[in-house]
Amino acid sequence: MGRVQGEALRAAAERLGWSGDESGIAREFRFPSYEAGVGFALAVALLAQRQNHHPDALSIGWCTVQVRYVTHSQGGVTDLDLQAAEAVNQLATA
Questions:
Q1: CATH superfamily for domain 6-93
Q2: Going edge to edge, which strands form the sheet with 19-21?
Q3: Where do the domains of the chain lie?
Q4: What is the pTM of this model?
Q5: What is the mean pLDDT of residues 8-33?
Q6: What are phi and psi of 33, to 5 degrees?
Q7: How far, in Å, are 9, 40, 54, 90, 94 from residue 57 at the CA level?
Q8: Are 13 and 4 contacting, i.e. CB atoms less than 8 angstroms apart?
Q9: What percent of the chain has pLDDT over 70?
Q10: Can you tell me the distance from the alpha carbon of 11 to that of 26, in angstroms, rounded to the nearest whole number?
Q11: pLDDT band at 81 (very low <50, low <70, confident <90, very high)
Q12: Short-list 76, 61, 72, 74, CA closest to 28
């Protein structure tokens, strides 16, 4: 599990609709109601448990949820973070 850096990281994050740099990638998801956002956050938490790879931050706001990934043990963003971001995107469109 190596770190993803530089242009490769920027391109991968952009392809996924996420933003960030070597310190982490993040995305804000919007929902029609507060309850829908809370349900999505719970789905992200359950996904993280199944993957055994958890977001660095999962923040619930009014009709929004912010998700941030970074692999602290590797000192930056790894393929696992990008795979998790892709899986979170799929939850958002389910």
A1: Transcriptional coactivator/pterin dehydratase (3.30.1360.20)
A2: 19-21, 24-30, 64-69, 57-61
A3: 6-93
A4: 0.92
A5: 95
A6: -150, 160
A7: 19, 14, 8, 18, 22
A8: no
A9: 99
A10: 14
A11: very high
A12: 61
